[in-house]
Predict the structure.
Amino acid sequence: MNFLLNKQTEKIIGSKRVKGLLFKDGSKVAADLVVMAVGIRPNVQLAKDSRIHVNRGIIVDDYMQTDSPNIHAVGECAEHREVVYGLVAPLYEQGKIVAEKICGVEGKKYEGSVVSTQLKVSGVDVFSAGRFMDSDDTKSIKVYDDFEGVYKKVVIQDNKVIGAVLFGNISDGPKLLGMINKGTDISDLPKVSILQSSADGSSESPVITVITMANSEVICGCNGVTKSTICEAIVENGLTTVDQVKNCTNASRSCGGCKPLVQDLLEHTLGDDFDQSDIKEAICSCTNLSREEVIEEIKGKKLKFVKEVMNVLGWKNDEGCSKCRPALNYYLGMLYPSEYNDEEESRFVNERLHANIQADGTYSVVPRMYGGVTNANDLRKIADVSDKYDVAMIKLTGGQRIDLLGIKKEDLPKVWAELDMPSGYAYGKALRTVKTCVGSRFCRFGTQDSTQLGIDLEKKFERLNTPHKVKMSVSACPRNCAESGIKDVGIVGVDGGFEMYVGGNGGTHLRAGDLLCTVKTEEEVFEFTSAFLQYYRETANYLERTSKWVERTGLEHVREMLFDQKSRQQLVERMDESLTHTKDPWKEIVENENKQEKLFQNLSSAVPSRV
Amino acid sequence: MERIQVAYINNLSERLGKSVKLGNLEIALFKLSNGEVRAIENSCPHKGGLLSQGIVSGEHVFCPLHDWKICTGDGEVQAPDEGCVRTYKVEIQDEKVYVCL
Ligand code: FES
């Protein structure tokens, strides 16, 4: 037998069938059959260097403690009772044990985890759990159905299920995992029924399975959510969809493997109230499709116009409504930044006219003032314009800008031309402002130049379309004069770096931001802001603020996307692509008489005196 | 009945309303996507929102202030809200748009 270690495969050679492999170092080897196996290797260097006992992983006891009393290890670097787990579910269980240990709570020992995985391999669903290899003291039940492309195997020891592997149809997975975890005695069960899937219409329907589960039984292994937690949440909060259960309890948030069980619990708990068609949230009453489905269809069918989306996807109202039209317009612009032509008639008035409509039908104008910094020249222009166009009120905004209120629609293009300042986007689902404090240039407490960083951030992200408005701020020290704790993205300068808070909100949904990360340089602030905003743009529902979105998506998930260097890089690239296609709307309108006439001019006619 | 010319048909863009002043009267003029032109009172029965600035869908317009949905054909506010606006007959002749008062 010949082992070639430390080789990296570059290519499989052969056109009709495999002939061999080409490696990165240029060498080749002939082959008739190639078997691929992929795994992970624990990173234990740090422990090794610190002289902590290491085998394949870092050796830990039943409290996740290494051989050094104050050092613990969890997750894929840890080796417990000779097992190294490469999955996320055991990490959560181990994390709990360590947390109890650290907090001095008398807790359970870690007894190891039964792991299950669910994958798609070359388009085939695969599920495996527990010990699924036969040995002398095990028996197994196997099903192999060539017609349906299904293979199932359940391994049994002492009348208990200890492992299972399923190919093709994996709907029995959660049920089998439950039996493994519970150690269900199957001596009384007809053996074939163990493998009867729910769709067979067999005597034991899946709903019966969840009913018979104990209340304390864990349904979602990833997040440790029990049956009773889910049932109570359904009843107390009137939940009707798997998505709502996920948001409320975290069940099925991580791997999603328990979704069928959650669904069964919903059916069982709600009884007749359960409506199949209600399983997801439609984007508006013109369709039954959810945002995710609409986006999938747009991508899959390469739909390019609002009208086309509605036609192809069978909208109930031919031309949609005030909810879906702006939403589709946004989604299309986000998906096709270079090609899509924004549809004015699908925009809410403020975004169509680039000003805020007021109760009396006049508009307000807020010019851009990067970082809240202005100068005498701009102020003079603002004063002159205010005189000339009878501005009814000049008001300082919460975002450190100047708001000119009471301007007539017809005057807007002239006002913009005379101000000759960029649009401040105070009307837009876009970056509104980057609020800043004075910072290290003047302030004796400032640790960072917050004003300049705020200006730079605003210059970079201005004009970007987002699902809802986005407010940012930069404070130069933890006194946080720019209120970074309640912004969509809030930066707080600290000695030697920056803390980045996300999902904060000072409005309707008052919420303190979550600390996303602490970074050392301004470049990193830009990088993480880009990636965060892009991920928000791509996955939030239209009109969903980051505060709601972070709660729905889960901060951990957002972190996973952003901390993975590759996915972060891709997000940043897509953001940069989107940013290259923005133009200042005021300038565009000032230079385009057609648009002025179409959008801003009123008509009038003389009438006979008696009317 | 008085017939007043208020616009040329090419002054109007599909699904973008226009406000027309006729003395003390203000009318919202819409060209629907089927080419038909409709005229209604340019003031929402709720709090006077300018309907000419609303999003137009089929023969309905959504008020820009609080999203009431109003039919440009019979002027009726759609449920769950209630009310109605005045509607005016529109005639088109030789590219000219007339409103009948
Ligand atoms: S004014 Fe029209 S909906 Fe309120």
